[in-house]
């Protein structure tokens, strides 16, 4: 478009020169406000309750704000009580045993207004307005910004509150105020991968993310399985189903995504026997569940075998993946019940050989094909999955550079000596940032053609899940087969890419940051994917503070290894804060304990200078708008002459 036409269009948006001035002043004011709070979360793994809890409490930030507002007058007990009220207002009101007298309501509303005022102080009025519930926006604004003498104000407040309460709106008002506070406590959310798998609530998390006011997403290896399932990667789809069987929430997928599992269940019931190696992971059992387990064992096996066959097919047609050592089924000696891996023979146990055709080991049987087709149809017709994958494509990426930080889920593949490891895709060799960009390019290409199921791009989605050079995975191989069938635990080890030890060194982190154009000394890497084993003395801060690992560790099954639930990260205008989470069992337990066990630790960056919006990614965009408006004014002046 010609510059002149652009100015005309821009001017039409404002209508008058005065409006342009007003917008300029507004934008310049925004640039000088303190930077808003970001929350970084990762590895949520279907734990929707824990996720909901973290969002409602702003990962401990809500309590921090309450302490800052009322510290001089309230004790811990009162702070905890109020945190609970703001985080779960509906439930709090419902559970309250004392009478909710008019005085109590009035006091609570005034306290909430006070807190809201504090939380809103670093935002523009227009932004605060957008965060308020429509029905109460006017009243709340009156209460927030009322000018005048103390006495006048008090009378005015008194009158408004009296009215709200006599109209029976007190409780609704309390809920509305609490939700607005929640909304302002976290301004932007970063999901550093792995919302999906190992827990049954991923769809609820995705529903919530779709509506979240400001969010970005770095794909994790588990999310990529779901994206793959939607866009035609059969092997990704079967793998996520196998994991769902392993963690015992397979049936929930019928309701969550409308997946028809009947053909799969019928096939498994007919072709498989029970096999304790495939008993789903679960903690407590009742009689009905035991019966269910038997069926699930069969389904779980059926899925594992289809997965190994499909993997074999991909590895055979994609020599460039260099995964021939993972062509496992052909390495089995069925009569001797052994497998040969890297010239070593290992015994295998309970391998269900009945559905393997010795003449064509990786071929699916007609029945398996039928099951696969019907599942594919189900996945590709699922409306919620379509929406969720659309969200992943729109808000998600392989990595993100935001406010001078580099975010990615897994790793940047490195060689032992710290150089970037290269990988060849369709004849081109890529490394470092270019490698991540290339993966992203192919993922998006595959997503444009969901009817093609075996092209290079779609196969590469599966590679992202478990390939050695996949930045989302970062391990030499995925030993799923070994863990199911080979008792020798030595074979279960998944060697990590050198990145995972080299990232502890400042030099490595600096090199990676520079590769992504980040030269500032305050630049940091924010990483997910690997649980921080607190029990073994590991910490989430590495490389002299250049890198944070924030595996939220919300997957219950993994809490044994970590010793806590996990870590997340906050970043406000003063710098980073590391948040330590305790295992979340239920809201009931939180209400019983009446306290938020989350702890927040400040990591003030070197010099104590508050970061303003002008120093952020959004600030750069606002500056561009300002520059445009200034140019527009210049243009208008010339036009007037
Ligand atoms: O414990 P499970 O569910 O069998 O999963 C183990 C597999 O998951 C992985 O850890 C990948 O998942 P993460 O991205 O959560 O680490 C594989 O490396 C491993 O083979
Ligand atoms: Mn991961």
From TrEMBL:
A Pfam family = FBPase_2
- Named cofactor requirement(s): Mn(2+)
Task: Tell me what reaction this enzyme catalyses.
Answer: beta-D-fructose 1,6-bisphosphate + H2O = beta-D-fructose 6-phosphate + phosphate
Under Enzyme Commission nomenclature, its number is 3.1.3.11
Q: Which pathway is this protein engaged in?
A: Carbohydrate biosynthesis; gluconeogenesis
Gene Ontology BP annotations:
gluconeogenesis
Say which domain of life the source belongs to. Answer: Bacteria
According to the UniProt entry, its GO molecular function terms are: fructose 1,6-bisphosphate 1-phosphatase activity
Could you tell me what this protein is called? Fructose-1,6-bisphosphatase class 3
Provide the gene name from the record. fbp
